[in-house]
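[step 3/7] fold_predict: job queued, chain A
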Amino acid sequence: MPKYYEDKEEDNRACAGIREDFKACLLQHDCVIKEGKLPSECLKEGHCKALQTSFFECKRSMLDTRSRFRGRKGY
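[step 4/7] structure written:
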C-alpha cells in the first residue's frame, strides 16, 4: 500500500497521493542518501521517472479543458 495512507494528515490538494510517493521516492533513493546529491540533481539523472510522469499527467489533467466536462482522472 502506498505510504500516503499511513498516519498522515489529510492533504486535499490535487494529486496529493502521487506527490507524496514521488517525494518519498526521491528522498529515499541511493542517489540522495549515499551520494549526497540534491533531489533535483537525481531527477535530472532520470531517477523515479515513472512517478514523475504520473505526477505530470495528473497536474496536466487539471488544466485540460476537456476535463471540465469529463472530470479529473482518478489519481
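[step 5/7] annotate
The mean pLDDT is 81.
The chain has five helices and no strands.
exit 0
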